[in-house]
Amino acid sequence: MAAFHQPERTFRMSTAPASLNTIAIDVVGHYGQTAKNLLATYRAGTERAVGAISTGYKRLVDKQPLPWIHGEVKANLVGTQQRVARLVVDSVTRIAERADSTVDSVSGRTVQGIEAFGRRTEWAQDMMVVGAIRKINLPVARLSLQIAGRVDDASRRLSQRVAGKPVVRTAKSTKTTVKRAKRAVRAAA
Q1: Where do the structural domains in the chain lie, given as residue ranges?
Q2: How far apart are CA 103 and CA 73, in angstroms?
């Protein structure tokens, strides 16, 4: 069976001042990483399930006291099952790798689109109406970013758990984040 590998984080939180565009790019990064974490979970879960089935099948075949199933037939049955198991795991791995590539592609194009939109609308940044709308939307965008971060963290923990690795939790509680975000939205209104 192929070894499980946790996907690397391929995005960075932007260090630029918080704007709707930078927040949108960070949200895309979090959800892209979430998709990769879920694909890794699928891959690791399949490997574990196939491994458990293989072990159970081998035990079942070895325990059968039937006279017509002798050592050579048992070895052939187990060997065939192991080839099928490898085929399943290899297929799932290839599918997950293609899906990872698709996630990277879609995320990259989305970020490029957001950046292009930002360049095209740069002229409107100093308009009073745009500033007023930005004041209303920025707290909601920050809340969306926090939610995306939480979803990313949860998917990472799920992936680690399915892979059989120790789960590392983040220090912040969900209630605290939600309360802060609600306060920020109320303050902006």
Answers
A1: 20-188
A2: 45
- Render the burial of 3-34: b for 16+ CB within 10 Å, e for the rest: ebeebeeebeeeeeeeebbbbbbbbbbbbbbb
Q: Which helix (H) or strand (E) holds 120?
A: helix 71-120
Please identify which residue in the block is written with the tokens 């509680």. 173
| Residue 15 phi, psi (nearest 5) | -100, -5
The Cα 189–Cα 181 span in angstroms is 13
CB 127 within 8 Å of CB 9? no
Ordered mean pLDDT values, 10 residues apiece, the chain (189 residues) = 44 59 95 97 96 93 77 87 96 97 97 95 89 91 96 96 80 56 58
Residues 135/187, Cβ–Cβ less than 8 Å: no
**pTM of this structure:** 0.74
